[in-house]
Amino acid sequence: MSGPGASAAAIQRHYDIGDEFYALWLDESRTYSCALWEGEEDLHAAQLRKIDWHLARCGAQGVRRLLDIGCGWGALLRRATERHGVAQAVGLTLSAAQQRLIEANGRPRVEARLEGWAEHRPGATYDAIVSIGAFEHFARLDQSPAEKLAGYRAFFTFCHEALAPGGRLSLQTITYENADRRDFSRFFAEHIFPESDLPHLTEIVSAAQGLFEIEQLRQDRAHYARTARAWLSRLKAQRAAAEALVGAETVERYKKYLGLLVLGFHAGTMNLARIGLRRLEKWR
Amino acid sequence: MDSMMSERAADPGAAAIEREIAGWMRGYLAELLEIPLEEIDDDTSFDRYGLDSLASVGMIGDLEEWLGVELDPVLASDHPSIRALARALAADERRRLLLTRRLRLPAASRP
Ligand SMILES: C[S@@+](CC[C@H](N)C(=O)[O-])C[C@H]1O[C@@H](n2cnc3c(N)ncnc32)[C@H](O)[C@@H]1O
User: Fold this and answer.
1) What is the pTM of this model?
2) Pick from A187, A225, A262: which is nearest to B54 by CB?
């Protein structure tokens, strides 16, 4: 069991179609989430700025233990240990390909585990937690609103228990903005993100209530439209290589998916939330 | 004369591009929706034709393929009819020269 959201099998259908395919159109850090843009820099610089923003938000500088829930190909784990003085960075992913790649890189202070947060048993508490682009997978379309909220609540409860007192969680996720699950594209649901439902901002706020205070909130959908445009552009430029790796049909599907991302963020059916949260201590 | 018209009249290159693109789109929609070409109307919104966001992204992708020029996936939602989209594409000066060549149109009288 990976937790209340998408199963490991569903996640692997999306992420395990090939490391090289993603490497063709993601930036060289292989970050697969919304970047943080400032001015005219390239995608890679904007992705690193995003990583640094989250590490600063959760107070990771020089800490002993950091947890990255949904670590992708490990860019944040690497940067935390190499640039932010983190002594031990642990990443969780449901993708076997991602976990293998991070472990194969053999960085001593980096550990990648093939497990969901719900099954993770931290040996010791963490000083800081980051989760970027994974919360989208923590609920399923077939859940009732109450079940969905309970799943999110379980996530924040896990983070609360895993964090040291006063510790921070920096969260980034796509949300429904001017839309809801009834509008969720069947195409997304069937072909791209099976078993996944997006949160409303209010659901995040209410699931965290009493466990975390929200210190900061940024809504950055324009940043995601720009990120997805950059991905799409790169995929088109690498089309022949991409088709050789995964076939023309899959490339076509990803072009549509990235186009839909651009459109959704541009039109405001979806938004991108970056939320800085701080663990609340019990006072009674 | 409204400003759109005078803008168009001022550049025969843009008008030709607009005509070509509108023609392609009529054919595309007629085939996609399986309705006779004569029934396609340049001013009816894509929405009214029942195009959802996936179909609209797909249409821009196919148009892009036909033109051989990279297009933004939001174009059909920002310019939601054949006329509006064709005109917006023709109005972009940077793109005009490229499109003129791709569509094998006679070069515009002005640079
Ligand atoms: C879109 S990727 C983002 C990866 C990375 N944070 C980044 O920004 O590049 C989502 C990640 O979440 C992971 N994931 C999904 N559900 C999870 C769960 N229940 N527990 C832990 N990781 C999960 C996936 O395996 C994948 O690595």
Assistant:
1) 0.92
2) A187
Give domain status of residue A2, yes or no. no
Beta carbons of A185 and B54 less than 8 Å apart = yes
Burial class of residue A165 (count of CB atoms within 10 Å of its CB; 0-12, 13-18, 19+) = exposed
Q: Minimal Cα distance from B75: which residue of A? A: A263
Is there an atom of ligand 1 within 6 Å of A98 CB? yes
Looking at the DSSP assignment, which residues form a beta bridge with residue A91? A68, A112
The answer to whether residue A284 sits within a structural domain is no
Token pair of A54, please? 């989250």
Residues 167-196 of A with CB under 8 A from B: 185, 187
CA of B21 to the centre of ligand 1 (A): 42
Measured between beta carbons, the chain B residues lying within 8 angstroms of A256 are: 54, 57-58, 61
Percent of chain A whose pLDDT exceeds 90:
83
Question: Is residue A139 a part of any domain in this protein?
Answer: yes
Q: ipTM value, please give it.
A: 0.84
- Alpha helices by DSSP H, listed for B11-92, are 12-33, 53-67, 75-78, 82-91
CATH of the domain at A156: 3.40.50.150
Q: Give the domain extent around A238.
A: 8-279
For an interface test with B, the pick among A234, A263, A270 (most B C-beta atoms closer than 10 Å) comes out as A263
Distances (CA, A) of A88 to A53, A82, A268: 19, 11, 38
- Tell me which chain B residue has its CA closest to the CA of residue A184: B53
Residues 6+ away with beta carbon under 8 Å from A12: A94, A95, A96, A97
Chain A residue with minimum CA distance to B55: A256
Tally of domains in chain A: 1
Torsion of CA B84, A261, A212, A216, to 10 degrees: -50
pLDDT tens string A231-255: 999 999 999 999 999 999 999 999 9
How many Cα atoms occupy the beta-carbon half-sphere of A211 within 13 Å?
A: 18
Amino acid at B74: V
Residue A150: closest CA among A162, A164, A140: A140
3-state SS string over A174-207? Answer: EEECCCCHHHCCHHHHHHHCCCCCCCEHHHHHHH
